């Protein structure tokens, strides 16, 4: 097959050059020329023509809406993040730090799918077939019938997908795959974009569900062009410390399910196992209540999780430190100002440290009230009552605003044995919850007075 001619296109102005240059000759921008395949002048068929289906304009209400069929992977936590399982013709991109467990989890999922009667293919570009076999032995996947292909050339991978027609295929990883149409090295912007586009086309045309493993940068974002995330149907991120036993898989984008769903896994000698009660991970086991500890209920997608917020307030110098792990540092500074102005609790000369136990990251403002109560508890040296929880957003005017789906949060806390709750007034349940005393508050100072009365 004749090799296509390549050109270099400027990302800024769209100008082209037959060779790479440091500065674009058209707009004088630096380092903007990206390699791409030149379009031929002849009437040759476009390589993406199969994606351009012929369709007529249709009224939205006349289109028949059908739920997509899903194939469970055999791992309940992974299915939760995917929205119920793998979708025929769907493309999933999963990224995470090196060694966090991406290949392990996908090999386990492929083995479960194969044992349930599905045809599977594992394409590895980073390891040999013998290394994949050794991993499967370590994971206890004896006599696994998963098909393995050690290949990094895109054209050969596409030919294998066409010949075998698997139900599910894993490409590990997209940064190692290269196309003969381009001269740049594997992992470059042009190669990643071109290879991902061809694999996406193959998935949509054949109905094979394809999972792409992606590398991440040192900041934790997926490496390669941003168009890679727009191209696929689902984007998953592996989170967690490689030194910790627990891993979180979070859905950042999902065309077939809810976003921000999380799956919790524990790394064991036999691979990753789903954790059915993740709240137990994020709660410290104190024999007795300790100062500076407050439990809150956070929502991760549709799942309510109980997380312990810990605060340590200590004597600081002329420039006190403000440090938070798992929460927004700027929001902590704002809450300290509200605490001083509206509740009369001053921490100007104190070091304040905040930590969300278990390595979870809390992005929602419903943690505000729990953070403020834990800071006050540490400053006073008095623990909050046993079985105490709190949640609610705090505004700059000192008001306590409601959190979404407050009833579900309270029911989850009651199920785990919590008996006292301080919540926004708008989240107070109309019917009492058995075994739980609920204090509904409207302002920060009111919440502080309630807690002082309890302690």
SSE layout:
Elements: E1 6-10, E2 16-17, E3 33-37, E4 70-71, H1 76-82, E5 86-87, E6 91-95, H2 102-115, E7 120-124, H3 129-138, E8 147-150, H4 154-164, E9 168-172, H5 189-206, E10 209-214, H6 227-231, E11 234-239, E12 246-254, E13 262-268, E14 271-274, E15 293-300, E16 303-315, E17 322-325, H7 329-343, E18 350-356, H8 368-380, E19 388-390, E20 393-394, E21 400-401, H9 406-415, E22 420-424, E23 437-441, H10 444-454
Parallel strand pairs: 6-10, 6-11, 7-8, 7-9, 9-10, 17-18, 19-22, 22-23
Antiparallel strand pairs: 1-2, 1-3, 4-5, 11-12, 12-13, 13-14, 15-16, 16-18, 20-21
What are its keywords?
single chain; 455 residues; alpha/beta; nine-stranded mixed β-sheet; 10 helices; 23 strands; globular
Describe the structure.
- This protein is 25% helix and 25% strand.
- It has 10 helices and 23 strands.
- The strands form 6 sheets. A 9-stranded mixed beta sheet has the order 8-7-9-10-6-11-12-13-14. The chain has a 4-stranded mixed beta sheet with strand order 15-16-18-17.
- Strand 20 (393-394) and strand 21 form a beta hairpin.
- Helix 4 runs parallel beside helix 5 (189-206).
Mean pLDDT: 89
**Helix segment count?**
10
Count of distinct strands: 23
Question: Strands across the major sheet, in which order?
Answer: 8-7-9-10-6-11-12-13-14
């Amino acid at each position: 097959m004749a090799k296509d001619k390549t050109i270099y296109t400027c990302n800024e102005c769209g100008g082209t050059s037959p060779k790479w240059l440091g500065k674009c000759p058209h707009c004088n921008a630096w380092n903007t020329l990206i390699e791409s395949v030149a379009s031929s002048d002849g009437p040759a068929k476009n390589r993406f023509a199969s994606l351009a289906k012929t369709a007529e304009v249709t009224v939205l209400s006349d289109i028949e809406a059908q739920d997509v069929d899903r194939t469970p992977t055999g791992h309940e936590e992974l299915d939760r993040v995917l929205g119920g399982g793998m979708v025929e013709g769907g493309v999933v991109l999963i990224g995470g730090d090196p060694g966090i467990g991406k290949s392990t989890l996908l090999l386990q999922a492929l083995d479960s799918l194969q044992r349930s009667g599905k045809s599977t293919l594992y394409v590895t570009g980073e390891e040999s077939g013998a290394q994949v076999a050794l991993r499967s032995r370590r994971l206890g996947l004896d006599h696994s019938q998963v098909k393995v292909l050690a290949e990094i050339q895109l054209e050969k991978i596409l030919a294998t997908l066409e010949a075998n027609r698997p139900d599910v295929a894993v490409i590990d990883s997209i940064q190692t795959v290269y196309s003969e149409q381009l001269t740049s090295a594997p992992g470059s912007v042009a190669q990643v974009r071109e290879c991902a586009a061809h694999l996406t086309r193959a998935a949509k045309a054949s109905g094979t569900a394809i999972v792409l493993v992606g590398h991440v940068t040192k900041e934790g974002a997926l490496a390669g062009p941003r168009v890679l995330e727009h191209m696929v149907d689902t984007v998953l991120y592996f989170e967690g410390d490689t030194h910790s036993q627990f891993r979180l898989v979070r859905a950042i984008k999902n065309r077939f399910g809810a976003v921000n769903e999380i799956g919790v896994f524990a790394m064991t000698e036999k691979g990753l196992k789903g954790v059915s009660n993740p709240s137990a991970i994020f709660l410290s086991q104190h024999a007795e209540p300790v100062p500076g500890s407050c439990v809150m209920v956070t929502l991760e997608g549709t799942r309510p999780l109980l997380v312990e917020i810990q605060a340590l307030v200590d004597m600081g110098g002329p420039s006190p430190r403000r440090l938070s792990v798992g929460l927004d540092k700027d929001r902590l500074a704002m809450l300290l100002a509200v605490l001083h102005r509206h509740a009369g609790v001053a921490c100007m000369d104190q070091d304040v440290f905040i930590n969300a136990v278990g390595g979870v990251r809390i992005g929602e403002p419903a943690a505000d009230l729990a953070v403020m109560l834990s800071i006050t508890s540490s400053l006073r040296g008095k623990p909050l009552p046993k079985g105490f929880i709190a949640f609610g957003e705090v505004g700059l005017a000192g008001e306590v605003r409601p959190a979404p789906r407050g009833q579900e949060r309270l029911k989850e806390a009651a199920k785990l044995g919590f008996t006292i709750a301080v919540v926004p007034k708008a989240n107070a349940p109309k019917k009492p919850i058995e075994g739980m005393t609920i204090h509904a508050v409207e302002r920060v100072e009111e919440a502080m007075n309630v807690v002082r009365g309890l302690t």
